[in-house]
Each structure stands twice: as C-alpha cells, then as structure tokens.
Amino acid sequence: MDLETVLPVAWFGVIGFGVLMYVLLDGFVLGLGVLAPFAEDGQQLDHMMNTAAPIWDGNETWLVLGGVGLLAAFPRAYAIVLSALYLPVLLMLIALVFRGVAFEFRFKARRGRRFWGAAFALGSMFTAFAQGVILGALVEGMPLEEGKYAGGALDWFSPFSMLTGAAVVFGYALLGSTWLILKTEGRLQRIARTLTRPLVLVVAAFMGLVSAWLPFLDSRIMARWFEDGNFWWLSPVPVLALANVVLLWRAAMREGRDARPFLLTLSFFGLGFAGLVLGMWPNIVPPSLSIWEAASPPSSQGFVLVGLIVLLPLILGYTAWAYHVFRGKVAADVGYH
C-alpha cells in the first residue's frame, strides 16, 4: 500500500486516540463539576475538587492534539465540522475557560466562593452538553455539496443532538462518581456510591435510546453494522458493553476494590467509542466524506507525523508520571495551593 492509503488511516487512529484520551481523562473532572451540587458543604466540594487538582489542567492536551491533528491531516473535514458546528464548539470553549477560571479562583477567593463553585458546576455542565451536541450532530450526518458544508448555522440543533448532549452530561457524572469512589473514603465515598447506581441505569438507558434512534438517521452508521453480514463481526462490542454494565452495577455498591467501578466505567466509554468508530468507518464526516477524500497531501501528513512521533511519547510519559505521583486516596484535609 502507498502513503496516500496508509497515512490517512494512521492519522484517523491518532485523532481517535486523542479524542478518547480526552473523554476519559477530562471526563471525570467535568463529572466532578456536574456532581458539585450534591456536595453537602463547601469543605466537601473542596475535597471533590482536590482529588483532581494536581492533574486536571493537563487533560486538555488531548483535546488540542485531536483538533490540531484534524486540521493538519484532514483540513476538509476540519473546515466542514467548524462551519457546521461553530456555535456548539464556541460554547464548549467558553465553558471550558469558565470552568478553568472557576477552578482556580474558588481556591484563591476569600469571598464569593459560592459563586465560583456554581461557576465550576455550570461550566462543567455546559462543556459536557456541548460535547454531546457536537457528537450527536456528527453522528446524525452533515449535508455536503461538492465536498463543502451545505447546511445552515443551526442544523446541528435537533432532538437527537439534544439527546446525546444530555447523555454525555450523565456519562461524565458517572465517570466523576466512580472517580470519587476510587480517590476518597468516608462520607464522600458513600455519597458517590449512592449516586453511581442510578447513574449506571441512566447512562445505560441513554445508550439504548441512542442505539434505537440510529436506524432512523440518514448517516449510514447503522447500515455499516448490518450490511454484508458485518453484525456478526461487530456484535462482540454491544455484547461486551452489556456485560460491562452488569459488572459496573454490581461493583458500584461492593465495598473494597475501589478501583473497579472507575475502570469499568472507562471500559464502557471505550466500548461506546469503538462502536461509534466502527459505524463511521471509513468516513470522517458522515454520511459520505471518507478519510482519503478529506486528507491533506502525504507530504504534509508525513511532516506533521514526524513531530507527533517525538511529542506523543512525551505526552504519554508525563501523563502517566503525574497520575503515578498523585495515586492513592486524597484525604479531606489535603489543601490545594
């Protein structure tokens, strides 16, 4: 195979990996913000935020990697996605900035801590909802004419994208609650366990609703699953996802092995992401723009890939090092400085 065939596949994998890493790592921090209203007092919210304080701001690296990779390797797809989803992307970025400012200011402020706590919660919720809307609009498909976006500024607004927006909010809340089970003890951990089981049911119900809706969309994603006998090859993904939900339900209230609920939630998100990628392949913008049609010249992809080969191990290295250094439980009296 020549470079024109191989490089787009490699970059599709790189971008997919970056997006998945962002969802998994920043997802639980956004989930902490979604769960902030359940904190019994300011000290408990401090404790929740301190579990992520040393590592949260490095997670956006993966979002940048996904965005820059899309621009460098698939500029046509980048132009179409930004044209179609300008408003929800702008909402996401504003909410991310607001969330980050609130995270820092709440610990430093002498007055207005309640305001910054509410800002942290709202910024996290709007970020999660915007990401879900972007996902739903992409899955639903975008009208294209001669390789260019042919829709309007509000075509992303639909019942399906609102559903996926709400689904991502609850999904991140599940990541946040299982993270608290992993990182805390005592009263806060009991609250997290109490929240986790209902969230498992809600997230599983959202996954079922989204799956049931797919056949009625004109994005060809569902057809990918059932054409040419593909379902028999792809069926392990939904089967494993269902088994994952059962195991997560059981692990949520079982004392001890506090890492299991979080790891099972990560695997559930990973299986959902795998199902999405398998349904989209080989299109990067449904319903019809393939990775080869959207790709930049091989010379451009190869040039950027050289830098990626150097940077990606560094990103993985410092991420692993940070999580290793700050492993273990976080006590309630640990402060953020």
What does this structure look like?
It is globular, with a radius of gyration of 20 Å. It has one domain. Helix content is 75%, strand content 3%. With 337 residues, the protein is mostly helical. The longest helix has 33 residues, at 3-35.
What is the gist of this entry?
This protein is mainly alpha-helical and 337 residues long. It has helices spanning 3-35, 42-50, 60-73, 75-84, 86-108, 113-140, 159-183, 186-213, 221-226, 230-234, 236-252, 259-280, 291-294, 298-325, and strands spanning 144-145, 148-149, 283-285, 289-290.
CA gyration radius, whole angstroms: 20 Å
Count up the helices: 14
Please give the order of strands in the largest beta sheet.
1-2
Q: Name the poorly predicted regions.
A: none
Number of strands: 4
Query: What class do helices, strands and sheet pairing give?
Result: mainly alpha
Biggest sheet architecture: 2 strands, antiparallel
Strand percent estimate = under 5%
* Shape, principal axes of CA atoms: globular
Percent of residues in helices comes to over 70%
What is the total domain count?
A: 1
Gap between N and C termini, in Å? 53 Å
Task: Summarize the helix and strand pattern as letters.
Answer: HHHHHHEEHHHHHHEEHH
Mean pLDDT: 88
